[in-house]
Amino acid sequence: MSAGKLIRRKVGDVAFKAFCVVVTVIALVALTAILWSLLKQGVGGLDLDIFTKRTMSSGSKGGLANAIVGSIVMCSLAMVLALGVGILAGTWLAEYGGRSAYGAVVRFLNDVLLSAPSILVGLFVYEILVAPFHGFSGFAGSVALALLAVPVITRTTEDVLLLQAATLREAGVALGAPLSYIIRTVLWRSARSGLLTGALLAFARISGETAPLLFTALNNQFFSLDLRHPTANLPVVIYNSALSAYDDLVRLAWVGALLIAATVLAVTVVARIVAQEQRRS
Amino acid sequence: MSDATLPATALSSRRAAPRGALIGKVFEGLCFTAATTLLAALGGIIVSLLIGGWPAIHKFGFGFLTTATWNPVTDVYGAAGPIVGTLVTSALALALALPVAGGVAFFLTELCPARLRMPIGTAVELLAGIPSIVYGMWGLFVFAPLFAKYIQLPLMTAAAPGSLLETLTMGIPNGSGILPASIILAIMILPFMAATLRELLMSVPIGVRESAYGLGATTAEVVMSVTLPYVRTGAIGAVMLGLGRALGETMAVTFIIGNSHSFPKSLFDSGSTIASTIANEFTEATSPVHTAALIALGLVLFLITFAVLGLARLMLRVQEARS
C-alpha cells in the first residue's frame, strides 16, 4: 500500500472521529441546555401554592392544583382502559393468533399506531366522543390518552410473554390445565415485572401528551373530578399559559413543564430499574 | 383438554365439557376482541377523518391540496401552505438531526471510553422520553431570542441585496419561522434517533466488527463499510421513524413556527405545519367548513405519516428477521 493512501486513510479516520466527538458534544450541550433552563425557570416558581391553589387568570396568584389533580385522574383512567385492552391484545398476539395472517396485520398496525401523530388521535376522539355529545369532557381526554398507551402496552406484553420459557407452558399443559388458566396464573405472573415495565413506559408516554387533550379534555379553571365536563390538566394549562403574554402565567408554565418532565424521567428510571431486576432474576 | 379425572357423568354416553373449556373460550374471545379493537381504532381514525373532512374535500376538491389561500373570513381553504410547511420543516429537521444522531451513535459504540458509555447512553435514552411541549417552550423562550440575535440578524445584514442568501433569509428577525422550528424539531428527534441507531449498531455481532479491525481497518472504515451496512435496513427504518415523529409533531413546532398560512418564502419566513394549524385553530373554528378543512388537513397528515411509518416498520421488521 502506498504511503499516500495510508496517510489519506489515517486523516479520514481522524476526521471521522473528530466529527463524532464534536457532534456528541453539541448534542449533549443542547440537551443539557434544555434541562438546565427547565430547572432554572421551574425551580424558582416552585412553592406550596402550586400544589394547593387552582389556576387563576394573570394578576392573582394561582397554582396548578386543579391541573395536577385533573391530569392524575385522567391518566389513571386512561391507564385502566389501556391496561385492559393492551394486555389482552398482547396476550392474543403472543399466545393465540400471533402467527396467523390476521395476527401479522394487527402487529403491523399496532406498530404504526405506536408512533402515529397524537394530534390525530385527538381529532378522532373529538369526532366520536366530543362532537356527538356536544361537549368537551375529561372522559374524552382519558380515551384519547388510552389510545396512545394501548400500542405501547400491547407491544411490551407480547414481547415479555414470548420471552417466557416454553417449559412453563408445557408444565401447565402436562398438569391438565387449560391454556387460558396457564396464561392467567402462570405466564402473567412470571412476566409480572415485564408487564409493569410496559405499563410504566406507557404512563410516561401519555403523561406529557398535550396535542390530543387540546380538543378533548379542553381545560377548566376550577377543581373538578367530574369527567363528564372539561377537565383541567397540566399539559393544556402549560400550553395556554406559555402562549399568554403574561409573565406570571409563563412562570407557572415553566413550573408545570418541570413537574411533567420530572414525572416522566422518574417513571422512566423506575421502569428501567424494574426491567433490569427482571433480567437479573 | 383435561379429562384425566373421570367424573360420574363420564359413564353416560355424552361427556360434560371440562370446566375450563368455556372459560378458555371466553378468555380467548376477549383477547381476540382486544386485538381487533386496535384494528378498529386505526380504521376508526381513517373513517372519522374522512367523514369529518368530507365537506371540505367535497367543496374544494383536489384544489384543497394545491392552493395556498387559507381564509376563515371568506371560508375558502387551501392546504398547500401547511402541507409544504410540514414537509419542509421535517426534511430540514431530518437533515440536521441525522448526521448528529449518527455521530452520537458511532461515538457511543466505537469511541466512547467504557466508563462513559453507560451514563451517556442512558442519558440519551431518557431524553428521548421528554414531552415535546418542553422542547416547544424552550424553543420559544430560550432559543428564539438567541437565534434572532446571534444568527438571524447577522445573516440578514451580511446578505448582499439580490443574492440567494437574501432570498433565503427574508423575514422578521424575531427568532420564529421555518428554520428555527426545524432546528427545535431536530433537537427533539435527535435523542430518539441516536438511541435507536445505537441499539442497532450494538446488535452487530462482535466477531464481524473484530474481524474488520483485525484486517487493519480504521474506525471510520469499520463503521462506514462494515457495521453500518450490516444494519442498513434497520437504520433506514429508524431514520424514517424519526421522520414520522417530525411530521406529526405538534407542540415542539406550534410555539415557534410563526403560524402563518401563506406559502413560506424563505428560511426565516413564518409558516405553519398541518399539526400546528390544527392545534391553533380547531377549538376556535369559525364555521363548519373551517372545522371540516382542519379535519381534512388531519387526513392528509395521516396519509403522509401512515406511508412513512408503514415503510419504516417494514424495514425494521426485515432487519429483525435478518439478525
Features:
heterodimer; A: 281 residues; mainly alpha; MetI-like fold; 2 domains; 0% strand; B: 323 residues; two-stranded antiparallel sheet; 1% strand; flat
Which class of secondary structure composition applies to the elements of chain B? mainly alpha
The CATH homologous superfamily of the largest domain in chain A is called: MetI-like
What is the count of β-strands of chain A?
0
* Measured distance between first and last alpha carbons of chain B: 37 Å
CATH class of chain B: Mainly Alpha
Largest sheet of chain B at a glance? Answer: 2 strands, antiparallel
- Give the overall shape of chain A, derived from the CA principal axes: globular
Strand coverage percent of chain B? under 5%
Class from helix and strand fractions of chain A = mainly alpha
From the alpha-carbon coordinates, what is the Rg of chain A to the nearest angstrom?
24 Å
**Helix count, DSSP H or I runs of 4 or more residues of chain A:** 12
- Measured between the Cα atoms of the first and last residue of chain A, the distance is 52 Å
From the coordinates shown, what is the CATH architecture of the largest domain in chain A?
A: Orthogonal Bundle
Stated plainly, the CATH topology of chain B is called MetI-like fold
In CATH terms, what is the fold-level topology of the largest domain in chain A? MetI-like fold
> In total, how many domains does the architecture of chain B comprise?
1
Describe the strand arrangement of the main beta sheet of chain B, using strand numbers: 1-2
Number of strands of chain B: 2
* Uncertain parts of chain A: none
